[in-house]
Every structure is written in structure tokens, then in C-alpha cells.
Amino acid sequence: MKNRLILSLSGNDIFSGGGLHADLATYTVNGLHGFVAVTCLTAVTEQGFEVIPVDGPVFAQQLASLKDVPFSAIKLGLLPNLEVAGQALDFVKKRADLPVVLDPVLVCKEHHDSEVSAVREELLKFFPYVTIITPNLAEAQLLTQKSIQTLDDMKAAAQALYELGAKHVVIKGGNRFDKERALDLYYDGQNFELLESPVLASNNTGAGCTFASSIASQLLLGESVLGAVKLSKQFVYRAIEQSDQYGVLQYET
């Protein structure tokens, strides 16, 4: 039986709605023991919301500290620059037999176009070594260099990401195409699966991190990739629905 050790390479969200905070909370709900190597800090400054990358040698020391921990799954979140992304890639390459979820966080308003382009090229190198990628629409557009305006465009982008090397893809569409339904699209190179849930009247944001870490959790627990995606969509829906309550959320049966 697999152990219940799971690792996130994620950023610190100063508002605790996403990043490593969302990852660890999700792992705890699933009965897993979460570890984190911190990729960046965040803060609100006079210039706005700022991402502060962890120094490369410090990130390298974090990974070296964890090299002998027998993780059963890995989730990758915000990789803020080429140095951190390159070190994360080297770490993952040595553990390509594990379930690995890549949430390719590319759209940060503090990034310049040149920085986004450079990190995009680095993220594409991860595709052969990860189990599934979970971009939102904006990230899928940046990764594929294709405009996504319709559901057919979304399918074309999923196919393009597969052709770029991703084994499984789920594009988070949200309510962009239908204000009443949150639509996500899964693709495995052969079949499409459209996943939908009602749009909740909520101000909660940052669900993408929770979605990706839930998928990683379910893969560790033995679910198929599509099964993990479906359970995770349900989990995020219930987490938002019950966001003003405390306690362990339960999956519907």
C-alpha cells in the first residue's frame, strides 16, 4: 500500500486562499500528510500584489532536504521564474513514476510578457513527466498560443496541449461560456469529457489550487485520472458551497 506522503512545490498566498495553504488544507481533508517546498512569497505593496520568488539556492536547499522522503504524489503550483522552474523540473524528472499534477500558473499581473513567455517554454518541458496538467482558459491560451472563445476552441486547445506532450489535460473553463454553469473539459488524447456544475453565488476565488491538489490527492489514493478529476470538481464545488463553515467536507456518494 502506498504511504500518504504528498509534496507541493507551491507559493505562499498572503491571503491564504490559494497556493500552499489551499494545498495543505486539501491534503488534510483527504487524510494525507502534506509537505511543501516554497517557491515564492507574496505581498501587497505600493505597486500592487507582488510575487517574490524564493532565491534559487534556498529553493535548491529545500528540495535537497526532501530528496529522501518517499513521496507518493507531487503537485506543482506557481513556479515564478526560470531558475525555480528548472530546479523543480530536475526534481520531478527523478520521480516521473509518481502521480504528478502540474497547475501551470502563468497569469500573474506582475509578470511582463517576456517573463511569461520564458516560463511558458520551461513549463512545456514538464509535460512528458507529469500525469495531468490543469490550466485555466487564460493559461491554456498562453501555452497553446491559440485564442479560446468557444467550446470548440477549448477542445482544440486541449488537443494542442496533448500534442505538446501532456498525457492528460483538464482545462478549467469556469462560467465563461455559460453564466449558469461552470464548465471544465477533460481530454486524454482520445476522448473528451465535459464536466459541469451550477455556478454558485460566491465571492470565493483561488479554487484552481484546490482543484489541482485534490486531483493529486485522489491519484495518490488510487483513483483513475478521470475519476480524480470528477471527484475534485465535486470537492471544489462543495468547498465553495460550504466556505463559511468549518469541519471536514464529505464527498457525495
Automatic annotation (TrEMBL):
Keyword ATP-binding among record annotations: yes
Swiss-Prot/TrEMBL catalytic activity: pyridoxal + ATP = pyridoxal 5'-phosphate + ADP + H(+)
Top-level taxon in the UniProt lineage: Bacteria
Organism whose genome encodes this protein: Streptococcus panodentis
One of the Pfam families matching this protein, by short name: Phos_pyr_kin
Coiled-coil residue windows: none
Domain Pyridoxamine kinase/Phosphomethylpyrimidine kinase: from-to ranges: 13-247
GO molecular function: kinase activity
EC number(s) given by UniProt: 2.7.1.35
InterPro entries reported for this sequence: HMP/HMP-P_kinase_dom, PM/HMP-P_kinase-1, Ribokinase-like
Name of the protein this chain belongs to: pyridoxal kinase
Family from the record: Belongs to the ThiD family.
Keywords, ordered alphabetically: ATP-binding, Kinase, Magnesium, Metal-binding, Nucleotide-binding, Transferase
